[in-house]
Design goal:
Oligomer: single chain
Largest sheet: none
Structural class: mainly alpha
Number of helices: 16
Mean pLDDT: 83
Shape: globular
Helix content: over 70%
Distance between the termini: 63 Å
Number of strands: 0
Length: 390
Amino acid sequence: MLDLLLTFARVGATTFGMTMLQEIRRVSLARGWVMPEVFDRGVALVQIYPGPMMVDLVAFVGYRKAGVAGAVCAVTGFVLPASALMLALAAIYFRLGEQAWVGALSIGLAALVTGLTADMAWTFARQHVAGLTAIALMLFGMAPLLLGIGQFWPILAGLLVGALTIRSREIHTEPGPATPPSLHLDGPIAVAMIVALVLIGLSSTPGALGDLAFEFAHIGAVAFGNGSTILPLLQHSAVDERGWLSFHDFAVGLAFGQITPGPILNTATFIGYAVAGWPGAIVATFAIFAPTFAMTLVFTELFERIHDHPWVSGAAKGVLAAFAGLLVAFVVRLGGSVLIGLPAWLFAVGAFAAGRLLKWNAPLVLGAGMLCWTLYMLYMKGLATALPGG
């Protein structure tokens, strides 16, 4: 268990984006925690129920190796370093945010994030939208932006339509054993009940902490795919419904989630800190990961029986197509709110091109982009000073 904790702490502190998947696989196979075919089926499994894929995969490996305690150690190690770093960044940002230079820097940061998120939406749509049914579900996923309806309806439509019409087996790689092992659900069900009781208790707490627990728990419980699919739900809840953050501050939190290692959903830590300080950051982080952690323990026991079921895989594909539309709508809303002026638009387009054409990763794009934005601001400040009356 200590090995699981320390190994995944290193992975969570040093990896970004999809390189996390490669590193999780490498360390899991190198230490003999799971066999290659089991890991591949685990990758398929974590795509057919809600939650952030990478965190669920780490929980899967930990559970297969050392049961419930192994899953707890693995996920704690994976999430903790990046969450701690995000908490520090949030504290610095909100303490210095009233200073003019911080606001000027954050404009460029928001523009770069818009371009990167557009690239993310493009990639996600290409991966998960194929065929007329998926296209229709993606378009319906944009309805919250176009028609003002709730985001729950596209998710429900994707679930039902996908289960009834798509029924794809494409994501599954290796067949399961002819005789699945016996089930041991006592531990996973006990953990699920404890998680549910804790979240109910936190959600019942009056004030900001209860609101944070309620919002992030239900987001973590319904969002399929990876971190990118959950971003529109985070934005809708934190910006549109609750008004906890401006769109600009949300974009900054999203940028911090991309430049810090580990899961991108550490943006929840940023939002929680903005609402209720470090207690809010802890509650938000726990609430967004806890529901899917409990699901992973249960589904890991069941996965030999469900991972190749056509109704289940079809439902997952339908939901992911709907989330593609939600992500496109999110990019439109984000750009409309934070791209102020031609320079911001040019930086957003440059970030998109760097990710799409040059294949730069997010930390590299943000690092190079912010260097250029800083030089641009210094140039404009010098030019303004040189002008008569400047």
